[in-house]
C-alpha cells in the first residue's frame, strides 16, 4: 500500500480528493493509503470550525467491480468492526455511507499514526517499562473484549494498531480478516511475522484446523517483543526458519540469549508462544502476569536507535549483518542492500507484495573468524549446543508485515 508521504495514484473508479460525501458533511482532503481493497482518505468535517475535525474514510471499490466473495468479506468486516467498536481499545467506526457506487467506512483518524511508526521511527516505548506495560494492557483489554463477542481478529500487528495521545493510547483496527469461527481451516491468513505456526498449517496443525482465538494470543506475544525491543524474533514461525528452529529446540533459553528481555518477560513469552496452541496462555493469564512484571529488560540492556540490544550486540549493524569491524577482516557478510523500510500505511495493514528485510544468518564457513565469534559468541554458542548447522543471526528490526 502507498504511504501518505508517497505520491498517491488512485484508480479512476475512486473519488478524487475534494469530493464531498455524506450529504456534503465530509470532504476528502488527503489520500492516506491505496490498496487492493480500495483507498483510505483523511476527511474533514465541513461543519466544524476551520475543518479541524478529521476522520479516516475507507472507500471500498465500486460494488459492480467486486466478486460476490469480496463483497461478502467487506460486509463481514463492517459488521464485526461495528460490533467491536464500542470498546475504547477499538478504533471507532462511526457510520457507513453508501453513495453512488461506493461504500465509505467512516472511522476515527489517528494523527499519531500507528504502532509500527511509533516503535520504529519515534522510538516511543523503548526502555520505558511503565509505558510498555500500559500500552500492552490496553491491547490485551481490547482483544479480550473482541473475543468476548466471539470476534477473532487474525491480523494483529503494529500496522493494525493506531495511536493517539502521542502514542500513549492505542486502538486496534482493520477487521478485514476477522472471523467468528472458533475453529478455522483457513490457513495462512494474516501477516507472516505475526502469524502463529498452526495458522500456517502443516505439521503444526495435525488436526486440519486451528483456533483463531489462540492465534491472536500468539500475535500479541510477537507484538510484545516489538514494543519492548523494536525487533522481530524470526521471519516466520515455520520449520524452515533457522531462528524459529532454534527457539523450538530450547523455548525457555533461546529468546533471552539473543534479546535483552527479563526472565519474567521471557516466561510470559514462552507461554504466549507455546507451539501447541491448546497449551498456550489465556488472555487473563497473560494480563495477570504483565501486571505483576517489574521490568521488561535484562540487566545491561543497551538502547541504540530503535532497538534494544544485548550488551554483546552494542555497536553491531544488525541490518547489514556487519560486526562493525573492517569488512576485509570478516568477509562479505551482508546480502545486497535492501530497500528502505516503508512508512507505515495509516488505517490499514494490507501492505501488498513487498519484500521485507530478511532475517540474516551466519554462514557456517564464517564461524572460523575469531573476531566475529567474540562479538557473536552467545548466539553461536547457543547454536552449537543445539546442533544447528546454520545458526540464526540476531533478530532484526521490525519491518512491515506482508500479507499471505
UniProtKB/TrEMBL annotation:
Catalytic activity: L-seryl-[protein] + ATP = O-phospho-L-seryl-[protein] + ADP + H(+); L-threonyl-[protein] + ATP = O-phospho-L-threonyl-[protein] + ADP + H(+)
Region of interest: Disordered: 314-352
SUPFAM superfamilies recorded: Protein kinase-like (PK-like)
Family classification: Belongs to the protein kinase superfamily. NEK Ser/Thr protein kinase family. NIMA subfamily.
InterPro entries in alphabetical order: Kinase-like_dom_sf, NEK_Ser/Thr_kinase, Prot_kinase_dom, Protein_kinase_ATP_BS, Ser/Thr_kinase_AS
Gene3D superfamilies xref list: Transferase(Phosphotransferase) domain 1 (1.10.510.10)
Keyword ATP-binding found: yes
Name recorded for this polypeptide: non-specific serine/threonine protein kinase
Species of the source: Gymnopilus junonius (Spectacular rustgill mushroom)
Pfam families per UniProt: Pkinase
The protein's Enzyme Commission number: 2.7.11.1
GO molecular function list: ATP binding; protein serine/threonine kinase activity
Record lineage: Eukaryota, Fungi, Dikarya, Basidiomycota, Agaricomycotina
Keywords linked to the UniProt accession: ATP-binding, Kinase, Nucleotide-binding, Serine/threonine-protein kinase, Transferase
One GO CC term, this protein: nucleus
Record domain Protein kinase: where: 26-297
Binding sites annotated in the UniProt record for ATP: 58
PROSITE patterns: PROTEIN_KINASE_ATP, PROTEIN_KINASE_DOM, PROTEIN_KINASE_ST
Amino acid at each position: 500500500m502507498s504511504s501518505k508521504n508517497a505520491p498517491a495514484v488512485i484508480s479512476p473508479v475512486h473519488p478524487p480528493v475534494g469530493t464531498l460525501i455524506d450529504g456534503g458533511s465530509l470532504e476528502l482532503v488527503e489520500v492516506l493509503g491505496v490498496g487492493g481493497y480500495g483507498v483510505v482518505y483523511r476527511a474533514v468535517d465541513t461543519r466544524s470550525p476551520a475543518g479541524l475535525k478529521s476522520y479516516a474514510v475507507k472507500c471500498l471499490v465500486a460494488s459492480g467491480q467486486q466478486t460476490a466473495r469480496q463483497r461478502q468479506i467487506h460486509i463481514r468486516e463492517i459488521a464485526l468492526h461495528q460490533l467491536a467498536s464500542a470498546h475504547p481499545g477499538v478504533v471507532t467506526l462511526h457510520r457507513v455511507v453508501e453513495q453512488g457506487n461506493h461504500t465509505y467506512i467512516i472511522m476515527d483518524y489517528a494523527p499519531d499514526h500507528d504502532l509500527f511508526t511509533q516503535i520504529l521511527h519515534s522510538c516511543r516505548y523503548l526502555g520505558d517499562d511503565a509505558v510498555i506495560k500500559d500500552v500492552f494492557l490496553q491491547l490485551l483489554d481490547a482483544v479480550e473484549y473482541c473475543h468476548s463477542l466471539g470476534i477473532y481478529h487474525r491480523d494483529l500487528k503494529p500496522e493494525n494498531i493506531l495511536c493517539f495521545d502521542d502514542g500513549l493510547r492505542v486502538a486496534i483496527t482493520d477487521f478485514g480478516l476477522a472471523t467468528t469461527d472458533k475453529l478455522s481451516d483457513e490457513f495462512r491468513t494474516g501477516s507472516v511475522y505475526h502469524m502463529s505456526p498452526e495458522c500456517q498449517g502443516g505439521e503444526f496443525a495435525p488436526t486440519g484446523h486451528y483456533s483463531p482465538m489462540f492465534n491472536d494470543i500468539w500475535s500479541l506475544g510477537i507484538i510484545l517483543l516489538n514494543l519492548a525491543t523494536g525487533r522481530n524474533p524470526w521471519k516466520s514461525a515455520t520449520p524452515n526458519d533457522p531462528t524459529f528452529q532454534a527457539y523450538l529446540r530450547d523455548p525457555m533459553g533461546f529468546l533471552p540469549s539473543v534479546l535483552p528481555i527479563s526472565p519474567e518477560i521471557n516466561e510470559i513469552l514462552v507461554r504466549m508462544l507455546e507451539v501447541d496452541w491448546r497449551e498456550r496462555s489465556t488472555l487473563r493469564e497473560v494480563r495477570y502476569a504483565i501486571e505483576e512484571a517489574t521490568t521488561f529488560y535484562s540487566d545491561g540492556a543497551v538502547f541504540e536507535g530503535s532497538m534494544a540490544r544485548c550488551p554483546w550486540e552494542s555497536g553491531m549493524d544488525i541490518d547489514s549483518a556487519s560486526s562493525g569491524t573492517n569488512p576485509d577482516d570478516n568477509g562479505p557478510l551482508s546480502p545486497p542492500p535492501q530497500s528502505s523500510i516503508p512508512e507505515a500505511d495509516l488505517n490499514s495493514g494490507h501492505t501488498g507484495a513487498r519484500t521485507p528485510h530478511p532475517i540474516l544468518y551466519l554462514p557456517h564457513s564464517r564461524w572460523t573468524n575469531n573476531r566475529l565469534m567474540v562479538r557473536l559468541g552467545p548466539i553461536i554458542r547457543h547454536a552449537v549446543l543445539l546442533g544447528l548447522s546454520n545458526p540464526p543471526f540476531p533478530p532484526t528490526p521490525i519491518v512491515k508485515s506482508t500479507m499471505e
